[in-house]
Amino acid sequence: MYGEFELIARYFTRQPNDDGVLLGVGDDCTLLQPTPGYCLAVSVDTSIADVHFPAEAPAYAIGYRALAVSLSDLAAMGATPRWCLMALSLPEACEAWLSEFARGFHALCDSCGATLVGGDIARGELSVGVTVHGELPPGTALRRSGAQPGDVLAVTGSLGGGHGGLLAWQQGERDLDDPLLAAYLLPQPRVEAGQALRDLATAAIDISDGLLADLQHLREASGVGADIDVEALPLTRGLVERLGETGALHAALGGGDDYELLVSLPPAVVRQARQRLKALGVPLTVIGRLSSEQGVRGVPESVPSGWQHFHGGTP
Amino acid sequence: MYGEFELIARYFTRQPNDDGVLLGVGDDCTLLQPTPGYCLAVSVDTSIADVHFPAEAPAYAIGYRALAVSLSDLAAMGATPRWCLMALSLPEACEAWLSEFARGFHALCDSCGATLVGGDIARGELSVGVTVHGELPPGTALRRSGAQPGDVLAVTGSLGGGHGGLLAWQQGERDLDDPLLAAYLLPQPRVEAGQALRDLATAAIDISDGLLADLQHLREASGVGADIDVEALPLTRGLVERLGETGALHAALGGGDDYELLVSLPPAVVRQARQRLKALGVPLTVIGRLSSEQGVRGVPESVPSGWQHFHGGTP
């Protein structure tokens, strides 16, 4: 059994490979040197066991996913990830679990260019809060409020996998090679795609609460309506087989946890956007169009609305 | 019953009075403009109900205290508070509770010059994670590692109140005018004192784990030993009356949650340091001296060691 300081030292202190880290883990604060002339994008998300992820999920996936959820917010602004801080609470300090948790967390740090610069470990119900910091040139951030009538609506990757993977887990699926379970437990935050779309998209949001719920945030911020082509929705592989056609559609529209980007684009730049994302290995699919007529058309009624705490939404 | 978005809007979204906030709460990220040429001090702390504070404590105090704990880390670096993010999880969304919680949080924001720029609310066991950002000129941060043999050891404010207040709470005390309970539930982070000592102190740490435990961190980082004058320890008012002389001494040495600063100072600047802090209404008391002889002398044996999660230390 280790104390808090030993745990931090053992699993979460690595020599930062970032010359913006003036002083790393081990003092009262971390000292960071932001890039001159850039602005800072900051977000925090907390993942709670059996609310946001199954407590029995592999520790690797819990560490990876808690960071992915926060990095997805940076992706939606088009920011370049720099630094993150992690507040972990857990009922007991099991070394094997912590080692795997840290391995998942650091794996995503490495692939997204983020550095863990601070943390806090306490005893409590299993939960992980991650604060992320990204950078970008002033005036270039993708906001929710810039969409224009006439813009095309597009999504990265595929939809429904987050919700489908949750259901698969609940049905006993445990193979992380299952495409739905992988989408749910190891989502790939679209960090590079967000940066590539920074000068093309007029607005962006990440799909954490479900397509329709997040579209609503974007529509309200931009003051636009939308026509959706549900036939065009890119469904995650295996979704129809597991949920049937109606279930798959509902998962894609109303399920949460996809962590794809929903973006608006002037029609003239759609081809260019698709080419840039293709180079990154990320599909971009047009799913509708924005208009000055408020509301959403083209969506079947009785689709469950997105995930909201204290509302009892899906899942 | 409100949803997450309504809760955030209702209780935590205020017009930021800070022109460094380019985009406040309401998008995927907050956008911040750091002060050119300064570096950023960042820290996160999580406060969990019935681990770090009583679940039944007044909501005002829970909000205030969760922020105070994090601001204390900025104080210990000598950083000027700028921005904070709060991740709140709570079992149910009670409006009266949230309103009081937010009032306590914002009250301390206002008195310390911090702005709440982002947050996350989820359903779970009551806990509050607060990430704070402060700024300071490069090279001026107070670290744990700069203490020299021959330096004087001093503390701000008084000691033992945190632990004494916890015991008072457990004994049924509920009056926040009680000096011990106030020290425990409404600690004053020494933000101005930390800044005032930036060019005088050689090292600093905040006393969150208990004087001896935090002194050990400072000693290890600086490679020094210490002689303590226990007669000189400034005990919080009411501590001896409640705990007796031995209990009071143990609370001051080994109890946690005082959130005072422990600093090392060259003897020549002690008077100047005391004058600066006096102008801020903060006492500074010399409690010992550092030496090249490792270890700690002058402390009675059998003092409980400081607070550590997973070790079962005090309290």
UniProtKB/TrEMBL annotation, chains A, B:
Mg(2+) 5 binds at D209. It catalyses: thiamine phosphate + ATP = thiamine diphosphate + ADP. Catalyzes the ATP-dependent phosphorylation of thiamine-monophosphate (TMP) to form thiamine-pyrophosphate (TPP), the active form of vitamin B1. Mg(2+) 3 binds at D28, D73, D206. Keywords: ATP-binding, Kinase, Magnesium, Metal-binding, Nucleotide-binding, Thiamine biosynthesis, Transferase. This is Thiamine-monophosphate kinase. Reaction mechanism of ThiL seems to utilize a direct, inline transfer of the gamma-phosphate of ATP to TMP rather than a phosphorylated enzyme intermediate. Belongs to the thiamine-monophosphate kinase family. InterPro entries: PurM-like_C_dom (IPR010918), PurM-like_C_sf (IPR036676), PurM-like_N (IPR016188), PurM-like_N_sf (IPR036921), ThiL-like (IPR006283). Pfam families: AIRS, AIRS_C. Pathway: Cofactor biosynthesis; thiamine diphosphate biosynthesis; thiamine diphosphate from thiamine phosphate: step 1/1. Mg(2+) 1 binds at D45, D120.
